[in-house]
Amino acid sequence: MWGPDNGSDSPTRVDACDRQIDVVLAYAVMAAPALLAEVFIDAFIVSVLYRHLRIAAEGNWLGTAVRKTWLLAFAAAALLCLAGWCLEKLAPGAHSIGPAIEKLLHS
What we know:
Blueprint (H helix, E strand, L loop, with lengths): L12 H38 L10 H30 L6 H9 L2
Helix pairs in contact: 2-3
């Protein structure tokens, strides 16, 4: 059922599936640096904002989280917006940080 009945060496569905898995894995390896860079940036931002929550929560945890981090979260968002705007002006058309920095370094 999975392969030809005549015993030939033609590709089977399993071979096609293996090729598709290889393509997906190759893409994942090629995209890994950009993905890891974004995860690192997110982890850094969260760790900086979390420092202010080490104080015991008073009442509702969500209210405490908002009250203790809104100013830093706003400042981080403003700085990231400013950085994005600057990168757009310096490297127009780049869709993420990696290509924008690459354009800046090679121009």
